[in-house]
């Protein structure tokens, strides 16, 4: 039997699964942003609208950080830092600067008249693209994780972070944000570290054990429905509910994608340009809503349609820029 062929097929399936998870995460991010924008500026939304936004928020960004942690592995530190500088920080600076100018001069982009406060918001606190600062800081800290060879110690660090954030849900030591998004790192670092721990424990091998795979699916479905219900009723701690739901739904998605025997090339493309779609989102979204508001009444179906168009347009822009020698560096595509 040709075992190499089987191994290559398994690796390809694993790669596609990660691509599909990442694509799902960015699709949910864009939908959440569109729904929030539609509610804030056009009064869109029904009784369950806000709850749906909350549920999406439980999953999208945590899934991104889990994937980032899972893919993080020991390597040459200087080369790793250089790669992350060009992949994350350069496009962050480019798009933050563009949005900084837009926010000062165009009301549709959340007009501001105070240059000093806007500068602090944009560059010191990184509120425009908080995800970028948080992810970059996690990547800078990652080499410290590589030194933790003892898996028991690694799990202990992860559990300490979980317990801190659960306690923070009660006592409010910190809230998301802070200079350079340091508090966001503490909160969302839980998911980054979870992804890293799962990789170190070879948790993907559990998918090869069918009873474990199916039982975990049932537990995940039950946990997600129960916690979502309790959260809507206000009977669950915010962080804990977000953690349980994000992990449960992420596993459900993992189960589905890892069981698929066909490819979805569109999701591969969306995954490849997921960070660029995230950066372009705020610009494409505003333009699409401006055009749509002059043609139709902004409703929930229209908002979802605009979110899908946003993803496709941003993906096409990224694909075109990727072909341009110097411009691709500005989008982190070099």
Structural descriptors:
disordered N terminus; mainly alpha
Structure description:
There is one protein chain. The chain is mostly helical. The protein is built from 13 helices and no strands. The model is unreliable at 1-7 (pLDDT under 50).
What layout of secondary structure does this protein have?
Blueprint lengths: L2 H40 L6 H23 L5 H29 L9 H10 L5 H17 L4 H21 L10 H19 L9 H23 L5 H22 L5 H8 L1 H22 L4 H23 L4 H4 L4
Shape assignment: globular
- Number of helical runs? 13
Q: What oligomeric state do the depicted chains represent? A: single chain
Tally of DSSP β-strands: 0
- Distance between termini? 40 Å
Radius of gyration: 20 Å
Helix-strand topology string: HHHHHHHHHHHHH
Which residues sit in consecutive blocks of at least 5 with pLDDT less than 50? Answer: 1-7
Helix content: over 70%
Largest sheet: none
What is the gist of this entry?
The protein has 13 helices and no strands.
